[in-house]
Amino acid sequence: MAKITYHTDDNKTHTIDVQNGFTVMEGAVQNDIPGIDADCGGGMACATCHVYVKEQWLDKLPAKEDGEEDMLDMAFEPKNNSRLSCQLIVSDELDGLEVNIPSKQG
Amino acid sequence: MNKTDVLIIGAGPTGLFCAHQLGIIGLSCEIVDNLDKAGGQCIELYPDKPIYDIPAVPECTGAELTNNLLKQIKPFNVKFHLNERVEELKKNQNRWHVKTSGGVEFDVAAIVIAGGVGSFEPRKFSVKECEKFEGSSLFYSIKDKSIFKDKTISIFGGGDSALDWAIELSNSSKVNLVHRRDGFSGAEASVQKVKDLNDQGKLNLFTKYQMDSVSGDKQIETVKIKHDEGEIKEIKSDYVLGFFGLIMQLGPILDWGLNINKKTVEVNTENFETNVSGIFAIGDICSYPGKLKLILSGFHEGALAARGCFKYAKPDEKLRFEFTTTSKAAQERLGIKK
Q: Domain limits at A75?
């Protein structure tokens, strides 16, 4: 279990306990946190679960798999701290992770 | 005007199987899809990825599934209207009058929305001023490449479309290719070609840059691009092209008076009709308690929606429940000769 904090574009903060093995995307979708569309359902095929990861977490996250960076090319306003939240699998090590949800997904 | 019993919106697996079920019960249909081919997400997002949960098919790819469904509906000679998006819907007595983006018109008894997560539309620049130039000097697809001859074109993106057009247009235009990182998702050979053209001075490659702003009067004159480190460059451009792939959008469906909840259309589970009589919704786009976004659920929903359409298409007839193993009528419709 890890506490994940989602900062949404309307300046609200949602801190949720997400079970290990679930993705940061699923944590948002299952708890009705707005701004993550996840159109393809976690298949790394749509770039609509794009988040900005708080800088200090960047190095602690699992590295990007092949294809994630390609999908991020299509995301709305990608930055250096962009990740697809469907690729961030929650574990105890991610306890305290904070992500910002962009104003739009596309 | 195309007159048919049912119009299916969306040529993904759910829409295709619904066409089969309509054919079996003796109703005609036509299918509209915004993509240039049938298959929906199966073709556009994961043509080569294996699917393991189609009943009685242990493993198949999105492309195989689509081809098999097309084969299965072949006997019904379903007419497809590809590259068309349904725009307008009007009730005309007991029938619906439908119009697409390309001006194709339909007169139908019922409509089945099998639109997945929406129609595939090009992803756009996030810079607001881009809207002003869209269609005149800023494009997300190319219809007539002759307008670019001897002009300066700034192309944004790192996939095959961006690379292929950069290479092609560099023959007769001055091309700037702008991409947010050093890596590209397009084919390795194209990446190499672009780098060679850049070295030969036949194209200008800017990596780790993204669009900052565009300006001009009626037409684009300059584009500002911003480096990861913050440096801004101004480049003269007559045209701007953006190739960022496709995104799914509900589009005009939002304006049809349907009960919409989180990008999905609410339906009943008896026949998958929406709150508007004669309009049905099946597959990923529909929602009801317990909804599973699985292809197999879409097939079930399509079978019931097809039967729901019957009373609108043939109000004076009673629908018989029959099996394809034994029904003479169904077998005739399938073109089976005994």
A: 2-100
